[in-house]
Every structure is written in structure tokens, then in C-alpha cells.
Design goal:
alpha/beta, 7-stranded mixed beta sheet, 6-stranded mixed beta sheet
Length: 592
């Protein structure tokens, strides 16, 4: 998606950029602004019913609703789904989304611009990078090829995405090659679709080196599209994008559908060595974007909930909300918020409850119902921290294509992580290890209270052998394996971690108070069977630090890591707090 002029000899006269806040995916590229103009409404109605597909989707990618929309669509979502084409509508309805309806893409609601097309002009649209990712493509080679072809055209202009301007590589190359550049409009530009329509209306030809919505869009507005030096995407370039992190099962079929062999076979009519050989494809484009399914202004207002009564009610709520916040009694305010904003209400309740629990005396038993069922804990401050981390921040959140993931919870404590995993993966097999016998009783009670039947509790320490270990109990969350027996230690069973890694593991969580380095070194040769690792690293005060050894083991198993400290020292050169014998605590997330 593209378009503000940086330096060009052509007076493009495009609508100006206007940055907006994306209230939902339906607002992408100014879609709601376009719909409001089409419906002859001057003000934003505040709410829009449903989710509107914002880009062109190949028929071969009709895998599930998320693949069609480019955002995660939950199966139980009651929202209306607005798509471009009848085949997409039929697909969704067959898969349980009975409210899906084809109404055309937002681009077909743009009023046709009154522009004069320049003959023998070429608009060049190379693949763009992303703000959060460096992609490998052939855009440099592609632009050099354009430079060699430029004498065949009276005007050649390159359109680059805003992220390309931030990184600068392609902008500098265009300058070196003497190619004029137009800055692309991002997803948060209210005028993006209007400017695209204007731009496509001005050029006779449009050429690109990869797949994208700009192909049917340009054809719909009368430009002749073609693909030159097609660049197929790579899985590793997209695996870190938020959408595929949320929906990893969709990555492989997407890469397959966009492979050079499949794409060039499906769209052989677009593949051209010379952009001048491209053809007018307006009928094909109209079909791809669902132009024939476009609703009339009254019908679109009805579909989106932009009727007079709904708009009045929406405006009334905006006025009434602050009044209700000030004057409604708490007994009514909280239930109302929970009904309207359940996730926000839960986070607010969690913050309040965690604060209450944190103020309880350490090592005083207590309970809370913040997660629904009764949760017992041996110490308030420890429980409060875990609640905020696991259920507030969701630090253990991950996605997997495995329908029955296997999770090892090493150092399960009172069971909050296992409860979180059980709720998110009800078909998972979860092994919860807790060495401290007294803490293990809390673990068992809580898992029973939460009916976490897919969690197996093992009262044992994870270690490098099965011969048992000396364990020093702290009474909360800092019990640890010790070298020498004493009056304050007890012998507990141990299980060798390496023996558990013979079969694939989707997540290995190790919060084992200083035993983590020995465990990973002993299990190194089998870490290839583990998809992701969370390890809490503890540095023993007064002893050599072993962080390098830990990171080396992970690196040799081809893991990348993200590291942060939950309790960083404010002035590390001056003072480093020591707690439970450790002078450094790091949370390390390892992934492939």
C-alpha cells in the first residue's frame, strides 16, 4: 500500500497524507473514511459493526478466516465478517461463520478520481520491507533492471513504502540510479486508498516484483499491471511478523501458495519481461476486489450499523460515559464495565487484587478468587508477582501448530503457570515438577480447584540424575538444590531432565533457583527436541557467573534469545542487591 512526493519531475497532485489512529483493522488505509464519504456521512459514527477485509487474498489461501483477513479471527467470534468476493463468503459460511457477507473491498468504494493518464508512463512498485523486520528480496536487482528499461518510457516513477524510507536502502539506490520516487502511504493514512486510486489513474503501466493488493488495484483503475523478476517470499522473513507469530500454522501454506512455481503458473498473464507487453485487466480486477458486490450507500449504512438511531445512541454513550463514571455507584459501575470491557475489567481487578495480596505478610497463607476458582498460596508477595507476570503480562504466551502440545513446567511452585498453560491448551500434556513437598501440596490443591486435569504433578526436583538431591526449603518460591546436607535441608526425589527430552517438547520452563545451567548442559544434545525454552538464570553471589555457559548451550542448539531482568539494579556499579543468595536474576526466552 503506497503514496507524498519526495522528488519527481511529474506533478502527481495526490491527496495529502493524514495520519489516523487505527481503532480496528477495518480502519486500515482509511477504509472507514472512504465508506463514510461514500455514504455521505460527515462524522465518524464511533463504532462500526463487523470486520472488513482490507486487502486482496488469493483463492488458494482460503485456509481459515484469519488467512483471509490478515488478523486473528477467533472461531467463536460473534462479529460480522465483510469480505470481497462470493467465493470467500461461501468458504466462511461453510466453516461456521454464518454472518459472513461479500460486499467488496474498501478500494472499490473510492470515488473514481478525475485525472489524466499519461501515455507511456511506468509506475514501479517494488516489494517493501517492514518496520520490525528486514526482508530478503531482489528489489535492488529489480530496480537496476528498471533503470535499464527506463529509456523505453517517457516517465518512470518508483513508489516506496514508508518503512523503506526509514531504512533508506532503496531510497539511496533510486537516487543513485536517477529514478524519481514517490513515498508510499502506510496503513495509518486516512487518504491511502484515495491516493492509490489517483496514482493508478495517472500511469499507463504498473510493474512490481512480487505479490500484493497493488496488482488488482492498479488494474481496476485502468493501469496495465505486470510482474517482472518475481521474488518468492521466504518463511524466515515472515516468521517474526505478529500475524504469523499468532497463527504459525498459516505460514507454510502461504509460502507454498506464493512460491515462484505456483504463483507464475496461476498468474502467467501477469508475468512479463517488458512492462509494455502488459494488458488492460479491469474486468479481472473488478472480480478480484468484489466490485460487483459493492453495496448501495443505504445498504452499507445499515450493514455497518450507521443508521440514525445507532449513531444517536453511539453519540449519546460518548457523552454519558464520563457522567456514568462519576455518578454511578461502584456496585453498578463494576458489573457494567465487566460486561462492556471484560478484558480491561479483568486487568484492572487483577491489579487491585495483586496489590492487596502483595501487602500481606510474607509466608502467611492466604487465598484469592481473582482467576475464578479458589487459589491458595503460602506467601502473598510471591503470589502477587506471579499473578501479574503470568496472567497480567502473559509472559508465557505462545502459539503452536501442535494440537496436543507437550509442556514441562520445571519449578511449578503453586501452579499458576500450569493453570495458564492448561487454560490456553486444554489438549496439552503438562508435566509439573515441584521439589518442595509443602509447596507441592498447594500445587495439587490449586490444580484440583481449577480442574486442570491435563496436568501431571511430580513431587521431585529436575536434576542431572535420578538419585535424589538435598533441598533447602524457603517456604515460598525460592527453595533450591544445595550441595551439602544440613539441619535445614531435606532429601527429595530427583528426575533427570535429559530423560524427559527424548520426545518433542513445545515449551520447557525452568524456574529452578540456580540449577538451570547444570540442567541445560547435561541435556544439551537433546535440546534439538525442544521448540522453545524459558529459563530463569540465577547468579550465585560470590561465585563465578555461568551466564556464558547457559547462552552457549542455547546458541549451539540454534536458539535465539530475548533477555530481561525483572528486578534490575538502579545503580549497578554502586550497588547490586542480593536476594536468597543471588546477585542477578534474568528471564531468558529462547526460541527458534
Amino acid at each position: 500500500m503506497r503514496m507524498s512526493v519526495v522528488h519527481t519531475h511529474v506533478q502527481l497532485d495526490l491527496p495529502s497524507e493524514r495520519t489516523i489512529t487505527l481503532a480496528s483493522i477495518s480502519h486500515s488505509y482509511g477504509a472507514i473514511d472512504v465508506a463514510l464519504e461514500y455514504c455521505k456521512l460527515k462524522s465518524d459514527p464511533l463504532t462500526t459493526v463487523g470486520v472488513w477485509q482490507h486487502g486482496w487474498t488469493l483463492q488458494s489461501l482460503q485456509i481459515d478466516a484469519s488467512a483471509l483477513f490478515g488478523v486473528t479471527i477467533r472461531k467463536d467470534s460473534p462479529t460480522r465478517l465483510w469480505v470481497a468476493r462470493r467465493d470467500e463468503e461461501a468458504f466462511l459460511q461453510q466453516h461456521g461463520y454464518s454472518s459472513a457477507k461479500a460486499i467488496g473491498l474498501p478500494i472499490c468504494y473510492v470515488q473514481l478520481p478525475r485525472v489524466v493518464r499519461e501515455g507511456n508512463s511506468l509506475l514501479v512498485m517494488p516489494l517493501h520491507s517492514l518496520d520490525y523486520l528486514d526482508t530478503h528480496d531482489n528489489s535492488e536487482e529489480f530496480l537496476r533492471e528498471i533503470q535499464r528499461l527506463r529509456t523505453r518510457f517517457d516517465n518512470v516513477t518508483v513508489c516506496l513504502h514508508p518503512s523503506c524510507f526509514q531504512k533508506g536502502r532503496l531510497v539511496r539506490l533510486c537516487s543513485e540510479l536517477g529514478l524519481d520516487v514517490v513515498k508510499g502511504a502506510g496503513i495509518d493514512d486516512a487518504n491511502a486508498l484515495r491516493r492509490m486510486a489517483t496514482l493508478f489513474g495517472k500511469f499507463e503501466y504498473m510493474v512490481t516484483n512480487g505479490h500484493g493488493s497493488h496488482i488488482p488495484y492498479s488494474a481496476y483503475f485502468g493501469s496495465k499491471p505486470s510482474v517482472l523478476n518475481y521474488c518468492e517470499p521466504r518463511a524466515k522473513d515472515r516468521s517474526n511478523t505478529p500475524f504469523y507469530v499468532e497463527n504459525p500454522e498459516l505460514l507454510a501454506p502461504t509460502i507454498d501458495a506464493l512460491s515462484k512455481e505456483n504463483y507464475c503458473s496461476t498468474f502467467d498473464f501477469l508475468i512479463r519481461d517488458d512492462p509494455r507487453d502488459a494488458s488492460l485487466l479491469q474486468d479481472w480486477a473488478a472480480c478480484q476486489i468484489g466490485a460487483d458486490n459493492r453495496l448501495s450507500p443505504p445498504d452499507l449504512r445499515e450493514a455497518f450499523g450507521w443508521t440514525f438511531t445507532r449513531r444517536v445512541a453511539s453519540r449519546g454513550y460518548k457523552i454519558a460515559a464520563p457522567i456514568a463514571e462519576e455518578w454511578l455507584p461502584e456496585s453498578l459501575k463494576r458489573p457494567l464495565k465487566k460486561r462492556l470491557y471484560p478484558q480491561l475489567a479483568f486487568q484492572q481487578d487483577l491489579e487491585v487484587e495483586a496489590k492487596r495480596i502483595a501487602q500481606l505478610p510474607a509466608y502467611q497463607e492466604g487465598s484469592t478468587f481473582i482467576l475464578g476458582p479458589k487459589l491458595m498460596f503460602p506467601s502473598g508477595p510471591s503470589c502477587a508477582y506471579q499473578l501479574k507476570s503470568i496472567f497480567g503480562q502473559e509472559v508465557y504466551k505462545f502459539k503452536t501448530i501442535n494440537s496436543k502440545p507437550r509442556i514441562i513446567d520445571g519449578g511449578a511452585n503453586i501452579g499458576l503457570a500450569s493453570i495458564y498453560f492448561s487454560r490456553n491448551f486444554p489438549n496439552a500434556t503438562i508435566h509439573a515438577f515441584e521439589a518442595d513437598p509443602s509447596i507441592c501440596e498447594f500445587l495439587r490443591q490449586n490444580l484440583q480447584s481449577f480442574t486442570a486435569n491435563n496436568v501431571e504433578v511430580i513431587q521431585a526436583a529436575l536434576w542431572t540424575d535420578n538419585h535424589g538431591v538435598s533441598f533447602a526449603s524457603e517456604g515460598s518460591d525460592a527453595g533450591k538444590i544445595v550441595v551439602e546436607d544440613s539441619a535445614r535441608t531435606q532429601r527429595v526425589p530427583s528426575i533427570r531432565l535429559k530423560d524427559l527430552l527424548q520426545d518433542p517438547v513445545d515449551l520447557l520452563k525452568l524456574d529452578v533457583e540456580g540449577a538451570e545451567v547444570d540442567l541445560l548442559i547435561d541435556s544439551a544434545e537433546l535440546l534439538q527436541n525442544v521448540e522453545r525454552v524459558f529459563v530463569e538464570y540465577h547468579s550465585d553471589f560470590g561465585k563465578p557467573q555461568r551466564l556464558e555457559q547457559l547462552l552457549s548451550v542455547l546458541a549451539k542448539s540454534n536458539f535465539r534469545v530475548h533477555v530481561h531482568s525483572p528486578s534490575p539494579a538502579k545503580e549497578p556499579f554502586m550497588f547490586r542487591p542480593v536476594k536468597y543468595g543471588f546477585d542477578l536474576l534474568l528471564e531468558i526466552f529462547a526460541f527458534r
